[in-house]
């Protein structure tokens, strides 16, 4: 390749315009450019821009489909018409029939997991056999509205076990974790923002804080007119002595949260896109701030990538009273299409306390809002208000995540809990780490070992490596002559590769975000080489201009 600057068909004006839009909208433009490149050149388009994984967890799905066969069988016991009608499953004796079904179908895919899951619920939670199997059967068939609407009884039990294991490292705090099953992490985010506002816990123009880089919607939503929050962006700007990113936070920046004007703190942990867990000292610092300085600080932690960090411990586990936790099953189990996630709030929490402390006028407004649901709306918990708000209150009777989604969520959780040797996790982490190594080895850059790195994404700051290889004069040249988006546009137009701009996530402007989830190991070799080639060609252009 000759100098990319000479080959690029993307104008500087266009790059400047595109720098203002969301990276996820920019992704669509990049895909179109990459498609055009593929048509012109002997390339295969590789999309490393979106975090949708290229794997699925098979066993819990097999269990779901086999359970579905049992469910149909149970429905036909009630009545079975040749035109394609059947009745509803009956609770009486259903556990005994389920045990018989498992014995007769022991060789069916997923049957072993169903049997182990059934025994787990009976032994660990003394579940009523008929009640349990009836809930599972109605869930897989999807013949009812969700009851309870917040989350099914046994779905909450098993998912709580899973979260205690995955978000609390098997050491949950005292108290009862309550769950709200929702349509993916996206819905969780929307419901949380909405209910905090509807219940006057946050107001338009309030000061909040956000740890960045961050998943773009956490940046964009607070800017909407309805919220218009005054947002403190706390950057992960800690560096090693030799100038490499640690993707962690300076103590002085975290200490800004001591100011009680900051009503809420939003965290993505592990981060997106750097993909690093919060350092223990940062968690300890936030805990100290809550204990000593800002006791009413409301914390929302999005822990979608928790399972990629061995012995991960969420802020939810260390600050249970102040924290709302969000967890999605989408990424770890290859289930983005299932839209299965939960919002977690401990029973004793600051949100309910703040509701009690609202001015009388605000309480009266909320009593009117929720008065159709309960005789004592003032006693309604925040998590239940979220459920109501998710259906504009008037449709509360139809709230809740669909039963099949909750059943598959339960089987994902049970599959993981029953995998005592961690075979699935071990293989998953191996796949991710191999892809990460393939990417970085072929950039020629150095990826320093770090136990806090999840590796689901990787953020590469081109200016760091420009300085490492060629010095500050070259960095100044790049800043003066190129737009930070130039890298992602050239990857798309010259090589058919789609990555996202790190600046769109409030990361370093010249960084790129690569998803390690959705391509094969060999593809990351190509991406790594292309990134390094771009840097090399920039340097050649710089040297050429310096000589003339």
In a nutshell, what does this entry contain?
Helices cover 48% and strands 11% of the residues.
Notes on the protein architecture:
By secondary structure, this protein is of the alpha/beta class. It folds into three domains: 4-51 and 423-547, Aspartate Aminotransferase, domain 1 (Alpha-Beta Complex), CATH 3.90.1150; 58-143, Histone, subunit A, CATH 1.10.20; 153-347 and 382-417, Aspartate Aminotransferase, domain 2 (3-Layer(aba) Sandwich). Helices cover 48% and strands 11% of the residues. It contains 22 helices and 14 strands. Strand 5 (207-212), helix 10 and strand 6 (230-235) form a beta-alpha-beta unit. Helix 4 packs across helix 17 (403-418), helix 5 packs across helix 7 (129-141) and helix 18 runs parallel beside helix 22. It is globular and about 85 Å long. The protein starts with a helix and ends with a helix.
